[in-house]
Amino acid sequence: EHSLKVHGKALTLPRPRIVSLLSSHSHHSSQKATPAEEVEELQ
After folding, report:
1. The whole model's pTM is what?
2. Is the Cβ–Cβ distance between 10 and 18 less than 8 Å?
3. By percentage, how much of the chain surpasses pLDDT 70?
4. Where are the residues of the annotated region Disordered (predicted)?
5. For the chain, first and last CA: distance in Å?
6. How does DSSP assign the chain, residue by residue?
7. To pair with 12 at 20 to 30 A between CA atoms, which of 18, 22, 30, 41?
């Protein structure tokens, strides 16, 4: 319950620290997916 409330607050009122964590997480995820996609497009 506590984590859900914090997550809900993070979505409505994002704090710099939370935003940086989310952006870095999505950045890492995109980094993992990007190389394979680029290789397929090049081929």
Report:
1. 0.22
2. yes
3. 0
4. 22-43
5. 48
6. -HHHHHHHHHHHS--HHHHHHHHHHHHHHHHHHHHHHHHHHH-
7. 30
